[in-house]
Amino acid sequence: MISLSQVTVRYGDLTAVSDVSFTVPPGFVLAVSGPSGAGKSSLLWAIAGAVPLAKGQVEIDGLVILDRPAAAQHGVVLIPQGNGLARVLTARENLTIPLLAAHKPGEELDRRIQQALEDVGLAESGDHLVEELSGGEQQRVAVARGIAQQGRAVLADESTSELDSTNRQRVLDLLHEEARRGAAVVIATHDPTVADSADGHALMDEGHLSWLRRL
Ligand code: ADP
User: Fold this and answer.
1) Ligand 1 contact, 113 CB (< 6 A)
2) How far is CA 10 from the centre of its chain?
3) Which residue ranges form the domains of the chain, and what is each CATH number?
4) Does residue 101 register a pLDDT over 90?
5) pTM as predicted
6) Among 41, 53, 79, 206, which is best to mutate for testing ligand 1, by the most ligand atoms less than 8 A from CB?
């Protein structure tokens, strides 16, 4: 369960997220849309513990989120806009790194990573350097890295923006599959198909959140 209470994010004088409160139970997908600069990424970073709160609180399954390392350890997975991949490592290495904190290297880990690469349609590309992959392929590697972590909260920031329609549907299905596994999922998106498929749809505008369709 993701619970936000009066969450406010400021950068200097600019309020990027203003007094946002909601809950996303396990098994549900919330889509957040809104114009560029509305505060969608800042909202996801706040949930992920990646940006300090000026006010309010984020709680995930009972843990108050104070910083990114603690959130990551608690299973809060962020699939960032721009992918956040290490370009000089292979796709497989990018998937492995976040898992090593909690898992021993070995066959089980290798299987999980291979499965995630297969799920995004990149079973054959695991040993390619990220910088050798296209933008869309990199985006799918970032999604594979996210789902391989089997988090309790999954935050996807425009994770279908560079994909063709087949891969967009594939990634959307995977994010819904994360919810069926028991995760609470939040997707920031400009894509109406992604928003329509979600259980709830919120709109961000100048840091304020309103509901188009409640969860
Ligand atoms: P969105 O994801 O909806 O495009 P963002 O959360 O990226 O919105 O940005 C919200 C506002 O905060 C914008 O005005 C943006 O310029 C500003 N902003 C985002 N990140 C920073 C930062 N690190 N420092 C200062 N301002 C920022």
Assistant:
1) no
2) 21
3) 2-213 (3.40.50.300)
4) no
5) 0.97
6) 41
